[in-house]
């Protein structure tokens, strides 16, 4: 169980800080919730405590792992599937995993694809979403501003 002030990651949404733990009645059921404040967009998310482990809630990475994520953005990207539908599903599975290295891989491959061939509307939305998830965790892990993290991501990804 996490406590107020803990920095956690909610897969598919990003990282944030537990601001409070509240009991709420929703649809006739009383449950306890983590109230997580996101560093980007000033958004709050309520996460049912009883579901936290099955939805993949985890602590954010440490500074050393954050440096490794930035390092992973450098160099060549592996060749992705040319079938748009398969590529989209593979990337979505990586984002859903909650693994920050896999999310970084999706961001890197989509940015490189955008630079070389352009992206469809669906992939552009996926890139924006994956980028926000990645940035939110790196902001908390490195104690940097979202703008600085995004600049660092863009400079690390080579063409």
What's the quick description here?
With 159 residues, this protein is an alpha+beta fold. It contains 5 helices and 5 strands; from the N terminus they run βββββααααα. The chain has 2 domains: 53 residues, Thrombin, subunit H; 94 residues, CarD-like, C-terminal domain (Methane Monooxygenase Hydroxylase, Chain G, domain 1, Up-down Bundle), CATH 1.20.58.
Can you offer a commentary on this structure?
- The protein is α+β, with helices and mostly antiparallel strands and 159 residues long.
- It folds into 2 domains: 7-59, Thrombin, subunit H, CATH 2.40.10.170; 63-156, Methane Monooxygenase Hydroxylase, Chain G, domain 1, CATH 1.20.58.1290.
- Helices cover 47% and strands 21% of the residues.
- The chain contains 5 helices and 5 strands.
- It has helices at residues 63-72, 84-97, 100-116, 121-142, 146-156; strands spanning 7-10, 14-26, 29-37, 44-48, 58-59.
- Strands 4-3-2-1-5 form a 5-stranded antiparallel beta sheet.
- β3 and β4 form a beta hairpin.
- The longest helix has 22 residues, at 121-142.
- It is globular and about 50 Å long.
- The protein starts with 6 loop residues before the first strand and ends with a helix.
- The mean pLDDT is 91.
């Amino acid at each position: 169980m996490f406590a107020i002030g803990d920095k956690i990651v909610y897969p598919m949404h990003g990282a944030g800080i537990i601001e409070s733990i509240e009991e709420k009645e929703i649809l006739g059921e009383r449950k306890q919730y983590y109230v997580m404040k996101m560093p980007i967009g000033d958004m709050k998310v309520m996460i049912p405590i009883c579901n936290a482990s099955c939805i993949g809630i985890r602590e954010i990475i440490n500074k050393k792992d954050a440096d490794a994520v930035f390092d992973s953005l450098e160099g060549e990207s592996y060749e992705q599937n040319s079938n748009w539908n398969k590529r989209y599903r593979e990337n979505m599975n990586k984002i859903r995993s909650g693994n920050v290295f896999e999310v970084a891989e999706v961001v890197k491959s989509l940015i490189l694809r955008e630079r070389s061939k352009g992206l469809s509307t669906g992939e552009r939305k996926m890139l924006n979403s994956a980028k926000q998830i990645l940035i939110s965790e790196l902001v908390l892990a490195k104690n940097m501003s979202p703008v600085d993290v995004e600049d660092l991501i863009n400079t690390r990804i080579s063409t």
